Amino acid sequence: MVHMQAVDAYMALVGRFLGILSDDAKLRKKTAGLQASFQVTFTDNEEGFCIIFDGGEIEASLGAYPRGPADVGLRLPIAVFDGMMRGTVNGAKAAMAGQMSFTGSARDSMRMQPVLKLMMKPYQAAAAVE
């Protein structure tokens, strides 16, 4: 069981990350051709966040995707997501080991792989504020 104070602190980090991500001009430029929505749910607390890529615009917020099911849904422990964003966990290996699951479009999920690498820098900037 994960300590709830640690989970609350982690969700604050995720909130900072989403703010930085939404304002990242480089990421908006790199995702200008992407039309996809993603819902991430942490199995530790059943909370998460959504990111909507809409032709160069990025809408990211804590909570559930507001328009029904997202194109891609990820369910994983906080430690796995944190490790992926810090570059210490290989997402494909974690998925094959059953540490995370995904629903929705496999095509959109595959298109997200290069974007995940671009998301690492904003995440690490948010984590540096801790």
Describe this structure in words.
This protein has a single domain (4-124), classed as SCP2 sterol-binding domain (Nonspecific Lipid-transfer Protein, Chain A, 2-Layer Sandwich). The protein contains 5 helices and 5 strands; from the N terminus they run H-H-E-E-E-E-H-H-E-H. The chain has helices at residues 4-22, 25-30, 78-86, 91-96, 106-128, and strands at 35-42, 48-54, 57-62, 72-76, 101-104. Strands 3-2-1-4-5 form a 5-stranded mixed β-sheet. A hairpin with a 5-residue loop joins strand 1 and strand 2. Helix 1 crosses helix 5. It is globular and about 40 Å long. The protein starts with a helix and ends with a helix.
Gross morphology is globular
Sheet bearing the most strands, described? 5 strands, mixed
Tell me the CATH architecture.
2-Layer Sandwich
Query: Alpha-carbon distance between the termini?
Result: 22 Å
Count of runs of 4 or more consecutive helical residues: 5
The computed structural class is alpha+beta
Tally the beta strands.
Answer: 5
Question: What would you give as the CATH superfamily?
Answer: SCP2 sterol-binding domain
Summarize the structure.
It contains five helices and five strands, in the order H-H-E-E-E-E-H-H-E-H. It has helices spanning 4-22, 25-30, 78-86, 91-96, 106-128; strands at residues 35-42, 48-54, 57-62, 72-76, 101-104.
Characteristic key phrases:
globular; Nonspecific Lipid-transfer Protein, Chain A; alpha+beta; 5 helices; single chain; 130 residues; 5-stranded mixed sheet
